[in-house]
Amino acid sequence: MNLFHIQSTIHGIDRTATFLEDNFVGIDWPATGDLEQVPAEEWKEQIVQHYAIRESELSRVVGTLQTFVNIMQDGDNVLIHDDEWAYVGDVGDYFYDNSTSIGEDSICHRRGVTWLGRIPLTAINDKVRALISDTSIISTFGHPRSQAQLDPWLSRTHETETTDRNSVSVDDVTVREALEVLKDALHSEDVDIRIRAATAILQFAKK
After folding, report:
1. Domain residue spans in the chain?
2. Could you tell me which residues come within 8 angstroms of residue 130 by beta carbon, excluding any fewer than 6 positions away?
3. What CATH number matches the domain at 3-165, 3.40.50, 3.30.428, 3.10.590, 3.30.2010?
4. Tens digit of pLDDT for each residue in 124-172?
5. Looking at per-residue confidence, does 122 or 167 come out higher?
6. What is the spatial distance between Cα 126 and Cα 106, in angstroms, rounded to a whole number?
7. Which pTM does this prediction carry?
8. Closest C-alpha among 35, 115, 19, 105 to residue 68
9. Whose CA is closest to 6, among 56, 53, 72?
10. Which has the closest alpha carbon to 79: 145, 35, 30, 28?
11. I need a surface site. Which of 27, 43, 56, 69 has the fewest CB within 10 A?
């Protein structure tokens, strides 16, 4: 499993919220079309045909596309970040989406993402900090994935979300009414009801 960082500001527009809400990451150069349908040796021709790119930049662009389309694999991890958080996701297969437009700022080269959690930027280690500080559109973590030390944070996020989903807020009035019902049940002629009511009251008193 590899770990990548992808810039989420594209053409001066911060796409972080869109990536998180719509569960994908993407890069530009939409006019190339679906690169799975174009032989890799023709990518340079496609780019030059549609974009005014200097020869000195051409290899970098092709390398970025190669990484996104072919090197990154389903199941790898991806990071994006904003001013406070690094967001960790599990990437899916590459696809080309031209459902909106292929304007210059369109993000047609995409991979679906299952977002796993977020980590405060103040808590990431130096190796991950170097990864997200890289100005490349896509950068690759140059160490074993375990050295990113992301998993404890992701587990903590999962546990917190599970607790939040299972927690139900009950107002004080309802609590008092429920206690009154239990108190009345203490005087029931049914011994089982009296025992259950007493147990519930004692459990509440321990909290």
Report:
1. 3-165, 172-206
2. none
3. 3.10.590
4. 999 999 999 999 999 999 999 999 999 887 865 544 444 444 445 556 7
5. 122
6. 33
7. 0.71
8. 35
9. 72
10. 145
11. 56
